[in-house]
Amino acid sequence: MKVTIVGAGNVGATCADVISYRGIASEVVLLDIKEGFAEGKAMDIMQCATTTGFNTRVSGSTNDYSKTANSDVVVITSGIPRKPGMTREELIGINAGIVKAVAENVLQHSPNAIIVVVSNPMDTMTYLTLKATGIPKNRIIGMGGALDSSRFKYYLSKALDKPSNDVQGMVIGGHGDTTMIPLTRLASYNGSPVSDFLSQEQLEKVAADTMVGGATLTGLLGTSAWYAPGASVAYLVDSILNDQKKIIACSVYLEGEYGQSDICIGVPCIIGKNGIEKIVDIKLNDAEKVLFTKSADAVRSMNADLKSVLV
Ligand SMILES: NC(=O)c1ccc[n+]([C@@H]2O[C@H](COP(=O)([O-])OP(=O)(O)OC[C@H]3O[C@@H](n4cnc5c(N)ncnc54)[C@H](O)[C@@H]3O)[C@@H](O)[C@H]2O)c1
User: Fold this and answer.
1) Are residues 132 and 153 in the same domain?
2) Domain boundary among 119, 143, 167
3) Which of 101, 190, 290, 309 has the most CB atoms lying inside 10 A of its own CB?
4) If DSSP codes are grouped into helix, strand and coil, which group holds residue 82?
5) In whole angstroms, what is the distance from residue 183 CA to residue 185 CA?
6) Are 299 and 260 found together in one domain?
7) Which DSSP letter does residue 217 get?
């Protein structure tokens, strides 16, 4: 089982690292545009093989897509961060150009691959990948909900003062500070609703902390986070390659589900060997439905900035 990761930066290399030490795939190819960078990251990871005990083969390539041939899954993390003075439209224009070219290149060598989009703004880049490549919608998955949900469970576990692995919870909607929707009503601790243990005020704080989870880390680190993003991508790739059928919140193309069409946005999905096996229809209450519609409106307005790239 072969995975290609385009963009050997912080998130891409961390993802390769987690995939290899957990033995999720037999082969990982890291590809980057920066001369020698992916080769260096791959070599560094491979030099862990004997100490952490893995057998995955990790290699690097500077823009040679032939090395990515016959990948089962391709992860796209390539892009640039927003720079001072750059408008959102400019950032979307630049990253959209990169993501579109990368998707077309990888598909030339791996026409049947499942594509996992990570580059931001992720929901818009997922939509772009779907529209630009025309491949079936089950094979285009945006990763954001897995990360936001793990941050939600982290903040819940802190408020509960209990281990994260005993906590269940999901974040749906857009992958952005103001668009994500932590579903506190459905979150649970060892089978009981978290509202049995936490006050409304505590739950609101957990949701608010989750929504600014990425920005909090950017403030502390001076750049966006990579350990949890890289591990979240690996978790998703594991469910695909090993046909685990996990339910994971992913950005997927909706055609009427959750009252939305012609948009990629985070909803719970069963993830297996065919990519998106099924969109799970959880019953939202009226307040959650309003939030979801607002979130979709915001994502749709970003998608409008793709016009020049999609002509
Ligand atoms: N969806 C999520 O949950 C999530 C989480 C964290 C980061 N991100 C996004 O993921 C992306 C990567 O983040 P990062 O921290 O790894 O950034 P980074 O700058 O460390 O890595 C990006 C890499 O992409 C490479 N690159 C740029 N253009 C390329 C091209 N045309 N072909 C191949 N490689 C190219 C760069 O050389 C760089 O090494 C960003 O867009 C970031 O906003 C998304």
Assistant:
1) no
2) 143
3) 309
4) coil
5) 6
6) yes
7) H
| Whether residue 9 is found in the same domain as residue 126 | yes
Listed in sequence order, the residues at least 6 apart from 229 whose beta carbon sits closer than 8 Å to its beta carbon are: 11, 14, 15, 118, 143, 147
Domain containing 156 equals 145-310
State pLDDT tens for residues 49-87.
999 999 999 999 999 999 999 999 999 999 987 777 777
* Global pTM value: 0.97
Pairwise CA distance, residues 144 & 268, whole Å: 12
In this structure, which residue's CA is closest to atom 11 in ligand 1? 119
What is the 120 CA–ligand 1 centroid distance (Å)? Answer: 8
CA of 8, closest atom in ligand 1 = 39
Q: Are residues 74 and 173 in the same domain?
A: no
| Cα 248 to Cα 237: distance, rounded to the nearest angstrom | 11
CA 307 to chain centre: 23
For the chain, what is the domain count? Answer: 2
Question: What's the token pair of residue 28?
Answer: 């990982």
Mean pLDDT, the chain, rounded, equals 96
The tens digit of pLDDT for each residue in 223-282 reads 889 999 999 999 999 999 999 999 999 999 999 999 999 999 999 999 999 999 999 999
Nearest CA to ligand 1 atom 40: 119
242 within 8 A of 24, measured Cβ to Cβ: yes
Nearest-5° Cα angle at 220, 20 to 81: 70
Tell whether 207 and 271 lie within a shared domain.
Answer: yes
Last residue of some domain: 143, 175, 196?
143
Catalytic residue among 5, 72, 175, 299: 175
Binned at pLDDT 50, 70 and 90, residue 158 comes out as very high
Do 247 and 135 have their domain in common?
Answer: no
Active site residue 175: yes
**Ligand 1 geometric centre to CA of 7 (Å):** 6
161, 207: one domain? yes
Task: Please give the number of the atom of ligand 1 that sits closest to the Cα of 229.
Answer: 5
CB 237 within 8 A of CB 75: yes
What's the CATH code of the domain at 194?
3.90.110.10
**Cα–ligand 1 centroid distance for 288 (angstroms):** 31
